[in-house]
Amino acid sequence: MPAFMPRLRRIRKASPLSFRLLAWILLFSKAFTLLAAGVQIYSDYRKDLSLIEERMAVIESGYASSLARSLWALDQKLLQTQMEGILSLPDIAHLRLRIEPDSELVMGEIPRQADTLVHRFELVQRDGNEFLLGELEVTANLERVYGELQRKVGVILATQFLTVFFVSVLILWIFQHLVTRHITAMADYTKDLSLKNLSRPLVLDRPDSTANGKDELGMVTDAINEMRERLNEDVARRERDAADILKFSKAIDQSPSSVLICDRQWRIEYANRKFSQLTGHTIDDIIGKHPSHLIENSMDIQDARHLWQSIRLQVQRVGVWQGEVNSVRRNGERYWEQLVVTPIRDNNGDTTGYLILGEDISIRKRYEQQLLRQANYDILTGLPNRMLALDRLKLALAQARRDNSQVGVMFLDLDNFKHINDTLGHDAGDTLLVEAARRISSCLRGTSTVARLGGDEFLVILPGLTGTEASCQVAERILKTFAPAFMLNGQEVFVTTSIGIAIFPTDSDNSGTLLQHADAAMYQAKHKGKSSYAQFTPEMTEVSHERLQMESHMRKALELGEFELYYQPIVDTASGSLIGAEALLRWNNPAMGMVMPDRFIPLAEETGLIIPIGEWVIEEACKAAVAWRAMTGLESLSIAVNVSPRQFRDPGFTDAVMRSLNASGLPPECLELEITERLILDNTIETADILRQLDRTGIRLSVDDFGTGYSALSYLKSYPFDTLKIDKSFIQDVLNESGDASLVRAIINMAHSLGLKVIAEGVEEEGQTHFLKNENCDYSQGYFYSRPMPEQDFIHWLETNHRANL
Question: Angle of helix 511-527 relative to helix 540-560, nearest 10 degrees?
């Protein structure tokens, strides 16, 4: 027993649930035992009483008649014997016989304080009649019954208690084995459960069967493991959310835009690093302040507050505000900032704060100003461009309508600018444009406008004129400023300008027509000899229309086959024999008739049509030369073709020449390309490369109109030229002017000293041929031998060749 109690206490401490279960089992078992024992004892008690009562009934039935006879017979001895027999029966302790009328016989003794059972019956003698003889009172002692009852109670209680105890212990063990230890394991698992060991599931120490999985412990285990899985998912989601929040926090903190977060009262709660870098304010300086505090230094305090009041109202109404604000950094430096203000809303759509994004757009603002200037001003000269000039012209016309005044429009074009650009290079051309813009501007008053329309074209707007004489005076001043030489690449160059004048409202009342009329007047000034000005007259419109008509027809001329080649022979000066021909382009238009090159070639160069036209000329000339060589048998017969600077600068020029040679079968050495002197002076790497490429293929190169442009003697030595052509302006007076003769003689000697052949152009008299022969000029070309002829006439000339044989 002493060892049992400590064990019981250990069980109570280790498994209080089991102990409480055992206590309840014992309690209810004891109650049920007592109830069952009581029922059993009462049942046995009633059974024993029934046996005594039955015994007394037997005594009555068995002894009543015999006792009556003995009493009737007054046989006392027999009566005593009979009563002793009754007294000897079990549990019978006392007999009392009352004999009528007043006698009594008593046998036995009733124990004191003993429970008894009394049974009485009458003794009657029946002999025809019934005679009451007396009454027998039988008293039974219940001491045995109660003793037996006590013994049974003790045995039943002991038996039931031991049974309940051992059953309770068994149930306790079974419960502890099947339930309590698993509950303890669950408690230990949940006690040790943390975010660090969520990967370990709860596993009970029992077979993994279907029945175990469906019982209460299995359901609790599954519930705990499901909870663990949900915790795992929640932890993973929280980690992802934390990573996202950290990423977003880092993104906001490291954002290239400044970020401010304000509460519902517009008090600053957060500012990222970019904001501090942008403004120079630290976070501690601005936390709790209103954003308007940051721009109060850049404007009036009231204006700042009014601005933020407008921002707040628009954010509330529209949901966003964005705009540009001129702010001030902490060090006082001003900068432009683009702001975007939006509310921060929760899941219910309620505003919890405000987000302010800022970006420094100072550089963009400067670029916008530059772009605005570039959009309205010419980058090279700094003058207003066409767009701004047209705006100012419209404003000037509107003002003139209000003031009843006049507006002069002057269209200026530099004479021979393309020649300067092609010979001295684009850098020199740019320098010329800048200086020309300066000289034109120096001739104008403050209210006037000079603009560059593009290329070498300038526009001058003269508002507030009272007469046409004022515009003429300005034009004369401009012409005078162009009289001094321009310094380009270290050398003096004389450049003039042609000016066309149109007057509002005399010539037109709208800007577009005024510009057209001024342009037409400018072309009239060029036709007058350049370096002059002309006022618009209605007749000039026809010239302008003719130019537009010519351009329109020329764009279709090649497709319609309106171009044709004329050929002029080139002969050996000494022998007069034919050595080749020069191909000369003509345009035979049905509407305009035969158009000479000096009319349409400049327009073709200006529009770029000279490139496809030039390719066609080379292709047709090569085909014609091949046909002549086959007809005459002259293997050395060559063909010369003029090449314009615009055509020469085309990237596909060399390939086009080689395609024409390959297609026709003409040997490259039989093709001679005539290049103007102004192209030679364009000393660029591209020019040198193209000339050397052509020379390597065997194509001959000649300098056309030598002596009419700028000095190019050094380039004659540098470039691979084969022939030099003396301009006809020197040949025509060679017999009359000694200067011209000396100059021609010097050119021939110089060319021969450089290893070049010489061709004299414009030979029209026989005396000129003798002079050239005496000066050893290699070849001659001119009307003396033949005028330029169509191909069929040239073929006929080849067949006769009278003049060439002189």
Answer: 80
